[in-house]
Amino acid sequence: MSRKPVPAQHGERSRAELTFDRPQLLAQLFGQYDQHLVALENRLGVYITARGNRVGLEGSAEQVAMARDVLSDLYKRIQRGEEVDGGLVDASIAMMAEPTLDGIVSAERVPVPPIMIRTRKKTIVPRTPAQVHYMRELTTHDMIFALGPAGTGKTYIAVAQAVSQLITGSVQRLILSRPAVEAGERLGFLPGDMKEKVDPYLRPLYDALNDCMPPEQVERRIASGEIEIAPIAFMRGRTLADAFVILDEAQNTTPAQMKMFLTRFGQNSRMVICGDPNQTDLPGGVASSGLADATIRLEGVEGISLCRFTAADVVRHPIVGRIVEAYEGVSG
């Protein structure tokens, strides 16, 4: 492959060459129609040529070094059996921008994820520094608040961790909940039985589960009670012991609902509260979000961790991150 050189953005021009010992993996590394290399050129301002099992890099010294490290990182991920897509390319670039993040980057500045989550269907590895921190906190704290915009992996990673612990027997139950705020909790106005009324609000949780476990296992565990998916109103009066409990869309709780939910915490349990403080859908007349109230009250409390994500941590299509940034800029 050969394309028009991309002007270096910083410093004097530099050159580097990488040689890969398994040419059969390069199609995955380069992407369809070399889309991953094109992304690197556009993001880093380097010029990339590929001949056989060798890749040449040209640009500023800093950007050439970063492109070299990103390609090395992606190649190692492919060797480990990971699937490389555009999101992972962007994530690897973001990880390289944090060379001092403890435990993430090796002496060669190549990210070596120190933590991963294994489920029945896939292995999840962190794609951003914030995700690395979050995944660590999920193994060390009993209660974690995950705050940030959509697309940052808050709920998905929590569900994956919950599935992993359920599979290994670390917990006996997996409980997923979220407020059905769009109907103002007046579910009687919706057609169907109770399950049919609340399922539309809980669909994102089902989707995350089905991505981590075969659908037949999800259904079997739901039928046996090992997995429970229910609106937050169903949590009242219970003690949630020996369970991994996740509250999604927590910004749509009231302070009273949040207090009720948090005080359900039982022995040998872990609780994760996910939400975006900037996307509250509470009906008019509600003074404040239970998520905002709880984070103010509980920050710094022993055993409770607050993990914050930003638009830079969005791992969906890159345009999602730009949308979040645009809206945050307007609201700020």
Describe what you observe in this structure.
There is one protein chain. By secondary structure, this protein is of the alpha/beta class. It is about 40% helix and about 15% strand. It contains 11 helices and 11 strands. The chain has helices at about 25-30, 35-45, 60-80, 85-95, 130-140, 155-170, 195-210, 215-225, 255-260, 290-300, 320-330; strands at about 15-20, 45-50, 55-60, 115-120, 125, 145, 175-180, 225-230, 245, 270-275, 305-310. Strands 8-7-9-10-6-11 form a 6-stranded parallel beta sheet, sandwiched between helices. Strands 1-3-2 form a 3-stranded antiparallel beta sheet, covered by helices on one side. Strand 9 (about 245), helix 9 and strand 10 (about 270-275) form a beta-alpha-beta unit. Helix 2 (about 35-45) runs parallel beside helix 4 (about 85-95) and helix 5 (about 130-140) packs parallel to helix 6. The radius of gyration is 22 Å and the shape is elongated.
Q: What composes the largest sheet?
A: 6 strands, parallel
Distance between the terminal alpha carbons, to the nearest Å?
44 Å
From the helix content, strand content and strand pairing, which structural class follows? alpha/beta
Runs in which pLDDT lies below 50 for 5 or more consecutive residues are: 4-10, 99-114, 183-187
**Biggest sheet, strands in spatial order?**
8-7-9-10-6-11
* Beta strand count: 11
Q: Strand-and-helix sequence, N→C? A: EHHEEHHEEHEHEHHEEHEHEH
Outline type: elongated
- How large is the count of helical segments? 11
- The value of Rg in angstroms is 22 Å
Helix content: 25-40%
